[in-house]
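> call design_seq(struct)
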């Protein structure tokens, strides 16, 4: 496994890694729940969703001249907020899947040598 930037190796059992990963999963799920609620609220406004989809279909930085949008259309700021929200939801869901795979498939009794990056990504704390 990777030794990380610090060159330090940590020896952890599968059980220790799973315990840390489960705690990290709980933290990530709480963050994901808040973001999912925010996205659900946005999705309740069909006009904004339609405007978002239409405006998102064109490149943000084009040379085709200025675009004209009505007051009912989503603002550029809101468009960017929703885009970032969706990216963060995607990242959180990917991280949750990675940790859940580790919890399911890691052997409890085995000892693993992991680097600092892995140690922190599994959710180990001070």
């Amino acid at each position: 496994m990777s030794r990380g930037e610090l060159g330090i190796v940590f020896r952890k059992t599968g059980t220790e890694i799973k315990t840390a990963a489960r705690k990290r999963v709980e933290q990530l799920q709480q963050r994901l729940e808040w973001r999912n609620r925010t996205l659900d609220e946005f999705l309740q406004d069909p006009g904004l969703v339609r405007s978002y989809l239409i405006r998102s279909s064109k490149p943000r930085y084009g040379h085709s001249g200025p675009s004209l949008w009505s007051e009912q259309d989503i603002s550029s700021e809101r468009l960017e907020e929703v885009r970032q929200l969706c990216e963060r939801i995607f990242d959180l869901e990917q991280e949750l899947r990675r940790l859940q795979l580790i919890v399911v498939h890691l052997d409890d009794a085995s000892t693993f040598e992991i680097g600092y990056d892995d140690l922190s990504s599994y959710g180990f704390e001070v």
